[in-house]
Design goal:
Elements lengths: L2 E2 L3 H6 L3 H8 L1 H6 L5 E9 L4 E8 L1 H12 L4 E2 L6 H8 L10 H17 L3 H8 L1 H13 L1
Parallel strand pairs: 1-4
Antiparallel strand pairs: 2-3
Helix pairs in contact: 2-8, 5-6, 6-7
């Protein structure tokens, strides 16, 4: 169940380093990945046997999703109207160390939720290295 925006800061700030371990243990895996999706084919029309290529998320992304929902660090808020997050996500040189951990969790939430409407949004953050930057920034702020 997602965190409510009203109490998310308190809840996220109460997490211990041990609470973050499962998520942060993904950092070395992400660093060494060459690809985060596997090619696949989906049958579109049984009568004509038309196939369409698609990408199936690999285990790393699936594990990431499982962890962020289980912790939980997914926050229930109006992410499509969150201009600050959009600016962070669009800036390739954004320094995630300039924002607190709850804000990074809001950004993770926006990325994960956006992927439901814009197929590939989550994949692109892994491919571009943005998700790795966010996770490393969380790790630095915990030490």
């Amino acid at each position: 169940m997602p965190l409510q925006e009203q109490n998310c800061i308190e809840k996220i700030n109460s997490f211990s380093k041990l609470d973050w371990k499962t998520l942060l243990d993904l950092i070395p895996i992400i660093e060494h990945k060459m690809s985060f999706y596997e090619n696949g084919k989906r049958k579109i029309d049984e009568s004509s046997w038309t196939f369409m290529a698609y990408y199936e998320p690999d285990e790393t992304i699936s594990q990431f999703l499982h962890v962020v929902y289980d912790m939980p660090i997914i926050i229930s808020f109006d992410w499509p109207k969150w201009d600050e997050g959009r600016k962070m996500a669009r800036d390739e040189d954004f320094n995630f160390d300039t924002v607190d951990i709850p804000t990074k969790c809001k950004l993770i939430t926006a990325i994960v939720r956006n992927d439901r409407f814009c197929d590939g949004a989550l994949f692109n953050t892994f491919k571009s290295g943005m998700m790795l930057k966010i996770l490393k920034s969380i790790e630095r702020q915990l030490t």
